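Help: why these numbers?

___
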Amino acid sequence: MKLRVLGCSGGIGGDLRTTSLLVDHDVLVDAGTGVGDLSISELTRIDHVFVTHSHMDHVTSIPFMVDTVGWMRDHPITVHAAAQTIEILRQHLFNWKLWPDFTQIPDAAHPMLRYSAVSLGGAVTLGGRRFTPLPANHVVPAVGYHLDSGTASLVFTGDTTTNDALWPAVNRIENLRYLIIETAFSNRERELAIASKHLCPGMLAEELARLARSPEIFVTHLKPGEMEQIMQEVRESCARYRPQMLYNDQVFEF
């Protein structure tokens, strides 16, 4: 598997893009603003979107992508998400008020978009690649994802705060090579991180202490304007884990 980071910021501005990861040529994990940097040809090749949760910075490009290339395709784009997340998208995004319901366009028998519900631990296999939802702890229903090529694995936590259920699942992954985990706020904003169900560097250190594997660790979803401060605090709090900042256009092969 080859994963390319299209966006990994907690906001926009300049070269910042919100969360979106391109797997090979045909799968997205989340669809933030980074998807907009793909060419139309690249967009037409995307068949699947695995959504961690319903917040706009993770789903904002789905409507534009379907609207742009849906009519060029001979089969619908499949959005994989937890049932609660699918219901939020149905009610609050693809509802004919904010955006058309592409599960009904051009008609229900031939839609441009379809949903497929996922559940924790239930792997979706696409061409030998396994995408397995993992527990997340956020202010809306959320999951992370375990991506397994058969040779090695990558875990993406999505947006989450302290998460007791995550680490037993991660520690069972024998071929874990990469861990991408969020840290949205600095330590001085710990109370805000707790209230919004994100992590700060001190909380990240507490979480990583539960990790029994030795993957390369990358930090994502940093708040714009505070990235250097957050990463300095991450390096100080988590030095033993040698964490690195995730950045746009970074490529992982596993």
Q: What stands out?
A: The helical segments are 40-44, 56-59, 61-69, 83-92, 166-171, 190-196, 201-208, 227-237. Residues 36 and 76 are 19 Å apart (CA to CA).
